[in-house]
């Protein structure tokens, strides 16, 4: 390697072990048109339809912990062996890309 490359590369770089997001970020429903999404993603949209101003924080949607304690998504009938957090993490990008939600 030359000095130019060495100055740009952190040899101690480590990848994050988990994907994280701000639990206080707000998820806002902006569309239900089409709803050409899988049933679990539809349940996220349905939950936001019922929420005040169609907005919830991530924590409200997925719950307080990995079990989904206090999850509005579970209260709204999500049935799965996976946690609400895993379900939301999986469908988040698709819901944003297709214009169903925004996260601020």
Number of domains: 1
Q: Structural class per helix/strand content?
A: mainly alpha
Terminus-to-terminus distance: 41 Å
Largest sheet: 3 strands, antiparallel
The arrangement of helices and strands along the chain is: HEHEHHHE
Strand order, largest beta sheet: 2-1-3
The value of Rg in angstroms is: 18 Å
Tally of DSSP helical segments = 5
Hey, roughly how much beta strand do the residues contain? 5-15%
Number of strands: 3
Can you give keywords for this protein?
about 100 residues, mainly alpha, globular
Give a topology summary:
Layout: H1 3-8, E1 26-29, H2 39-50, E2 55-57, H3 58-62, H4 72-75, H5 84-97, E3 101-103
Antiparallel strand pairs: 1-2, 1-3
What does this structure look like?
About 40% of the residues lie in helices and about 10% in strands. The protein starts with a helix and ends with a strand. It has 5 helices and 3 strands. The protein has helices at about 5-10, 40-50, 60, 70-75, 85-95; strands spanning about 25-30, 55, 100-104. The chain has one domain (about 20-100).
What's the gist of this structure?
Helices cover 39% and strands 10% of the residues. With 104 residues, the chain is mainly alpha-helical.
